[in-house]
């Protein structure tokens, strides 16, 4: 039976190793304890993405939930935040918030994520609208964009 230690808000498990675990081994053990719905990407960036996702689930005002991180998120973090949305309405609301704030340049990956979210929800008019907006903003579709469209239409 292993010992559990709590460090920096993360549970670290030492499964009876005779030597002390390295930092990466401790991180890996902690990631294995994360609930299966949670993305391992949440652990990155000091838990910033996890904090944002938790705020989005509890705070209804996007300015309040996302405001503290305004202009500080990487494209990858924005992608994870969008991808983790279960409800298409919430995902679209967050996507539009990023567009309106003007501090993020949403790229083809972000549009692909939203096309997939809206397509899975069978929101075809919104898929078409987003496709038109994407083209109007000069965001060029790539192979994965077409693959996403094929996937959602199946």
UniProtKB/TrEMBL annotation:
What domain of life does the UniProt record list for this protein's source? Eukaryota
Identify the keywords attached in UniProt to this record, alphabetized: Repeat
Which ranges does the record mark as transmembrane? none
The keyword Iron-sulfur belongs to this UniProt entry's keyword annotation? no
- InterPro entries named among the record's database cross-references: Mito_RNA-Proc/Resp (IPR051240), PPR_rpt (IPR002885), TPR-like_helical_dom_sf (IPR011990)
Q: Which GO terms label this protein's molecular function in UniProt? A: mRNA binding
NCBIfam families linked:
PPR
Q: What is this protein called?
A: Pentatricopeptide repeat protein
